[in-house]
Amino acid sequence: MEPTIVSLIRQQMPHLDAVSPRNALPDLGFDSFSFVQLVLAIENAVGIEFADEYLSYMRFDDVGELVAYVERCASARSRGAA
Questions:
Q1: 67: containing domain
Q2: Could you give the number of structural domains in the chain?
Q3: Residue 79: predicted pLDDT
Q4: Which one-letter DSSP state was computed for residue 18?
Q5: What's the half-sphere exposure (Cβ side, CA atoms, 13 Å) at 50?
Q6: Positive or negative, the Cα torsion across 44, 49, 64, 58?
Q7: Backbone angles phi, psi at 62, to 5 degrees
Q8: Do 12 and 42 contact (CB within 8 A), yes or no?
Q9: pLDDT band per the 50, 70, 90 thresholds, residue 81
Q10: Which end of the chain is less congested by CB atoms within 10 angstroms, N or C?
Q11: Is residue 74 helix, strand or coil?
């Protein structure tokens, strides 16, 4: 899942040379608006829906936490579909 999320981040922030799980989202240039755009891209790419309380970039300390949240959502979705 991490490569997918990193790819979506780089598509939205093409000026970035590298993205790692330890990068804080504001340090990468994300603000409220750009984070919602990223959320929509992730939802479309992965087939999940972010809970309302996770629609703020400030909810995640870094890219790794975002990836972990998306993985939990995708896992829950696949368990529900089984």
A1: 2-81
A2: 1
A3: 80
A4: -
A5: 24
A6: positive
A7: -160, 180
A8: no
A9: low
A10: C
A11: helix
Confidence of residue 82 (pLDDT cuts 50, 70, 90): very low
In eight-state DSSP terms, residue 22 is T
Rounded CA-CA distance 2/64 in Å is 8
Report residue 82 as tokens. 């089984």
Q: Which long-range contacts (CB under 8 A, 24 or more apart) does 43-49 make?
A: 45/4, 45/8, 46/1, 46/4, 46/70, 46/73, 46/74, 47/74, 47/77, 48/73, 48/74, 48/77, 49/73
Domain of residue 75, CATH code: 1.10.1200.10
Rounded Cα distance, 69 and 14, in Å = 23
For the segment 17-44, what is each residue's pLDDT rounded down to a tens digit? 999 999 999 999 999 999 999 999 999 9
Contacts of 3 (CB under 8 A, 6+ apart): none
